[in-house]
Write a structure and sequence with these properties.
Blueprint (H helix, E strand, L loop, with lengths): L31 E8 L7 H14 L4 E5 L7 H4 L7 E2 L4 E2 L1 E2 L5 E3 L16 H13 L6 E7 L6 H9 L4 E6 L3 H16 L4 E6 L4 E2 L6 E2 L7 H7 L4 E4 L4 H8 L12 H8 L2
Parallel strand pairs: 1-7, 1-8, 2-6, 2-7, 8-9, 9-12
Antiparallel strand pairs: 3-4, 5-6, 10-11
Helix pairs in contact: 3-4
Length: about 270
C-alpha cells in the first residue's frame, strides 16, 4: 500500500490489489439504495435532529427511510422517535426497530437494558459497532439511509467513511466562530475520504421574536457563509431555535414536526 493512500478505494484508480478491501458488504438480506452521513466537527450543533428530520421528510415523500445512529456514547435518536422497544434478532441477524411512520432505526440504546446505561467502551470497540450495524442488521428495502455520526473525526468516523459506501454527506454547524473552525475539519475529512459534501446546514441560526416577528441572531453574525464559500459549498438550510422542535423531540414526536427548513435539502438528496 502506498504511503499516499487515503484508504478510500471507492475513488482510487490505482491497481494495488487492495481495491474495495475496506468496503464492507451489508447483510445478505439487506437492500439499501442511498446512504447519507450527517456529521460535524463537534457535538451539540444538532446532527441528530437534522438526521431525524431528513428521514421523516423522505418518509413523507413516500420512500422507505432508515437511520443508523452511530453516536454510540450519546445516542438520542430513539428518544426523538419515542422508541421504547428493543431490537429483535433471528438466526440471520438483527432487525431494526420501526417507528410509528415506518422508519427503520438502529441505535445502541435499542440494545441496552436501560437507555441511561453508559457505554464505557474504548475506541476500537465502538468503531467496530459501526461496521456491525451495517453488516449484521437486516435493512429491508431502504431507499434512503441517514447515518447520525458522532462528533469529531475520530475512530468511528474514519471507520464509517472507509467501510460504508456513502453517497454523500451533510455537515451541520451553528453560527459561532469556533464551530466554523471545527466544521472545516469535517469538510476536509470528507474530502480526504472522497465523499461528496452536499452542503451545510446551519442550526440555531436565529430566533424569531414572538411579538414583532424580527429575526434575532443570538450568537451574533454568522460566519457559516465564509466557511461555505472557502470550500465552494452551499448553505442548504438555516434552522431557527424553534421551541416546537424541542418539544417534539422531548415528547418523542419528531415525526409530527412542522416546518419547511430542510425541504430543499430533501429535494437535493432525492435527485439521482
Amino acid at each position: 500500500m502506498s504511503d499516499e493512500c487515503t484508504k478510500d478505494c471507492k475513488t482510487c484508480t490505482r491497481d494495488c490489489g487492495e481495491q474495495e478491501s475496506l468496503i464492507k458488504t451489508p447483510h445478505q438480506r439487506s437492500s439499501i439504495n442511498k446512504v447519507i452521513a450527517v456529521l460535524s466537527g463537534k457535538g451539540g450543533v444538532g446532527k441528530s435532529i437534522v438526521t431525524s428530520m431528513l428521514a421523516v421528510l423522505m418518509q413523507r415523500k413516500g420512500y422507505n427511510a432508515a437511520i443508523m445512529d452511530l453516536d454510540i456514547t450519546g445516542p438520542s435518536i430513539p428518544r426523538a422517535f419515542g422508541l421504547k422497544q428493543r431490537v429483535t434478532a433471528d438466526e440471520d441477524g438483527l432487525n431494526p426497530v420501526v417507528s410509528e411512520t415506518g422508519i427503520q432505526i438502529m441505535s445502541i440504546n435499542l440494545l441496552l437494558q436501560n437507555e441511561t446505561d453508559p457505554v464505557v467502551w474504548r475506541g476500537p470497540v465502538i468503531a467496530n459497532v459501526a461496521t456491525q450495524f451495517w453488516t449484521d442488521v437486516i435493512w429491508k428495502d431502504v431507499d434512503y439511509m441517514f447515518i447520525d455520526m458522532p462528533p469529531g473525526t475520530g475512530d468511528i468516523a474514519l471507520t464509517t467513511f472507509q467501510s460504508i459506501p456513502l453517497d454523500g454527506a451533510v455537515i451541520v454547524t451553528s453560527p459561532q466562530e469556533i464551530v466554523s473552525m471545527v466544521v472545516e475539519k469535517a469538510v476536509n475529512m470528507a474530502g480526504m475520504m472522497g465523499v461528496s459534501v452536499l452542503g451545510l446546514v446551519e442550526n440555531m441560526s436565529y430566533i424569531t421574536c414572538p411579538d414583532c416577528g424580527k429575526k434575532i441572531e443570538l450568537f451574533g453574525r454568522s460566519s457559516t457563509s465564509q466557511t461555505a464559500g472557502k470550500h465552494g459549498l452551499d448553505i442548504l438550510s438555516a434552522i431557527p431555535i424553534e421551541p416546537g422542535l424541542a418539544a417534539a423531540v422531548d415528547a418523542g414526536k419528531i415525526e409530527n414536526f412542522k416546518g419547511t427548513w430542510l425541504d430543499a435539502l430533501a429535494d437535493i438528496i432525492e435527485k439521482p
